[in-house]
């Protein structure tokens, strides 16, 4: 007897669920999320695939339903850089709401990823129809501006060990998974990715990870880091910080 094909999930239901789990959107009124669901579509991307490759300048806001999105590009020397990484529950691409703006970065799936793609003009119209929701946009933008200032501050004043510790501590809550034995947090990220995020060589990252491993802060394996002392990483990160705005 031939087995029945697996049922195909309703895209609208997947979109609605992803919007409801988005950290910025989850407190929005249900009827607004329903309206946003009707405006949106799903995009599915394989590992390393560019998002919107056929039209990278398309004005869309992206909500990560599953997987991970990498924001980055290639500099004038041909070196890859990574500005940020975003996992399920994150919203990215708000800057794409700006008109007549040149962007030097794009989006790639860091792993198999499902995105909710919201047309920019429709998103702006929805916000204008519900003005109080602009507050959530402003607060998120301010939080990301603060994070950028902190990163730049550490880049200017901290040693490389402080910067590596800060990056790992920042990635752990959003990108980490509990270790199988319950001891620590697992980050599935390559040394090349870390190097691109800190604008240093992979060899430098390898050296720093070995030193952190010797200090008992983490365990390094191919494509995977297990953070066993997050508090220690945070202390090391803070040791290189100076007061800022």
From TrEMBL:
GO terms, molecular function: DNA binding; DNA-binding transcription factor activity
Ranges annotated as spanning the membrane: none
UniProt cross-references to CDD domains, sorted A to Z: CAP_ED
Keyword Repeat tagged: no
UniProt keyword terms in alphabetical order: DNA-binding, Transcription, Transcription regulation
Signal sequence extent: none
InterPro entries: cNMP-bd_dom (IPR000595), cNMP-bd_dom_sf (IPR018490), Env_Response_Regulators (IPR050397), HTH_CRP (IPR012318), RmlC-like_jellyroll (IPR014710), WH-like_DNA-bd_sf (IPR036388), WH_DNA-bd_sf (IPR036390)
Every HTH crp-type domain range: 158-231
Domain of life: Bacteria
Pfam families attached to this UniProt entry: cNMP_binding, HTH_Crp_2
GO cellular component: cytosol
Stored PANTHER family: CRP FAMILY TRANSCRIPTIONAL REGULATORY PROTEIN (PTHR24567), HTH-TYPE TRANSCRIPTIONAL REGULATOR ARCR (PTHR24567:SF74)
UniProt name for this protein: Transcriptional regulator, Crp/Fnr family
Native source organism of the sequence: Delftia acidovorans (strain DSM 14801 / SPH-1)
